[in-house]
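Board notes (copied after class):
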Amino acid sequence: MTTRLQVGAGDVLRTKTGRTAVRQFLRRILLGVKMRDFRLHVRFGFDDPADAGMLLAATAPLIWLLRVWSTDRFSAEAIFEEEILCASGNMDVRIYPAGIIGALALFLLSPAGFRAAKAVFLNR
């Protein structure tokens, strides 16, 4: 009687080739998803106006970068008179199924992906 060492899919994907295959898979998945339009408006305030000012000061560089990058797509407003957290936004996302199916096929046909899929089905 021989005993087989059971190798899980996680063990396969933690190897160097597995990490590379996962990284390529995620990159290909992201190429199959496109964000066309993104808008976000945030209003925040705390019971203490100093806290709202401190948050505004801490996030000011990020807010400035987002406004420079897209003037009408992002806005943040500090409200010093009341305690509030309000956000509204919308996003147009396009998903291309052929790109996602292709990414999955390429991942499963890669050596690391094939070993991981084999480990999943053999260890049930």
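Comment from the instructor: Residues 6-32+96-124 form one domain. The longest strand covers residues 33-45.
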